[in-house]
Every structure is written in structure tokens, then in C-alpha cells.
Amino acid sequence: MEGKTKEKCEKSGIIEMWAKKHLLYTEATRHPFILSIRDGSVDLSSFKRWLGQDYVFVREFVPFVASVLIKASKKSDDGNDMEVILGGLASLNDEIAWFKSEASKWDVPLSNTVVHKANQNYRRFLENLMLPEVDYAVAITAFWAIEAVYQESFAHCLEDGSKTPSELQDTCQRWGNEGFGEYCRSLQKIANRCLEKASSDVLTKAEVTFLRVLEHEVEFWNMSHGCA
Ligand SMILES: Cc1ncc(CO)c(N)n1
């Protein structure tokens, strides 16, 4: 990108531009499953299905985040990236403990979970992104998108006027809280910085990867909602 276009991107950020440009971003962050939590009509068996499957997802997400950390340590020219990503790994550690206690609260068994197709497809996608030849800019964009979808979705369930059932407040707080929002903005900043310096080939790959993440997120919500 040259001249004015580049300047414009630097102001609004490439990430923000993509999130605005692609309707899929809104489809992922305003999915019927999330809207059903927000309006209180959620079917609790859907919630329990989501809980069991997301625990499986999170355990697979950890090695992906570790691979992003490795890329940051090799590629990054900004000393702060590593701390942000390490913070993400630490919060995943808390998240795994949270899933265990939440699952026991809801009587959802976490061992022997039948891993749903959407989860398997997501895992395969993450495995490919872990390969050393995947550019740091592409991997960090995917990482941001994965976290941002949950942040925006669950924060929506906590806004004024939402009728989120009290027993689901804790779940919404986990990803919808201001600290998690701040962490997502840090990831977004890193991604924007990498994308601004990226070649057009890497930029294209990152945008396609962003869209694939959104598709996997929609499929994941569909599975929870019982539409897949
Ligand atoms: C499917 C999915 N996407 C994103 C997150 C955020 O960590 C999660 N826990 N699960």
C-alpha cells in the first residue's frame, strides 16, 4: 500500500478495516447462540454442549498460542509482544481450571467428550497455522481474531439491557470483562503493526486466515446451538 491509503490504514488500522469490511465478523460476534444468551432464551443443553466442546478447543488452543510465542521470540522487533502472548497463555491456564469447576457445576463430564466435527476441523486449521513457515503476521492475526470473537460476543451479553441468566453471568464475564478487552486490544495493536510492515502476499494470507477463523467460529457456535 502506498501514500494516502497507507496513511489511512495506519490511522484506523488494517484489522479494524477488515472487521468493518467483512460481514462475517458481525455474524461471528452476533451469532444466534450469543443472542439467545443475551435475551435469556438460551437452551441450557446448548450451553452445556458448548461448555464441553470449548474445553476440548481450549486444550488445543494452548499449543497454537505457544507456537505464536515461538514466532514472536524469533521474529518480533518489539520487546512487548512476548509479554502480551505470555499473558494470554497464563489466562488460558486459568481458563482450563475454570472449565473444570464450571463443568462440575453443570454436571458436564469433561473426559470422553465426543469431539464434534466443527471442533476437529478447527483443530486441523490451528495445526496448519502452527507450522514454522506460517508468517508471524498471519499467526498473530488469527490469534487476535480467535480471542476477539469471544470478547465481543460475551461483552455483548453484559451490556445494559441484556437479560443474560444469572447462572451464565460468570461465563460472560470470563471473556467479556474489561481486562480481557484490554488484552484483545494489545493483540490487535501487535497484529496491526505486523500487517503494516507485511508484503502484499502476507497481507492477503492474513486476510484469508482472518476469514477462515470467523468461519470456524460461526461453525463452533452453530454446533453449540444445535444447528450443525
Ligand atoms: C471456539 C473458541 N474460540 C475462541 C475462544 C477464546 O479463547 C474459545 N475459548 N473458544
UniProtKB/TrEMBL annotation:
Q: Residue ranges of the Thiaminase-2/PQQC domain?
A: 18-224
Which residues does UniProt call coiled coil? none
Give a single Pfam family match. Answer: TENA_THI-4
- Superkingdom per UniProt: Eukaryota
Which PANTHER family does the record match to this protein? Answer: BIFUNCTIONAL TENA-E PROTEIN, BIFUNCTIONAL TH2 PROTEIN
* Descriptive protein name: Thiaminase-2/PQQC domain-containing protein
In which organism is this protein found? Hevea brasiliensis (Para rubber tree)
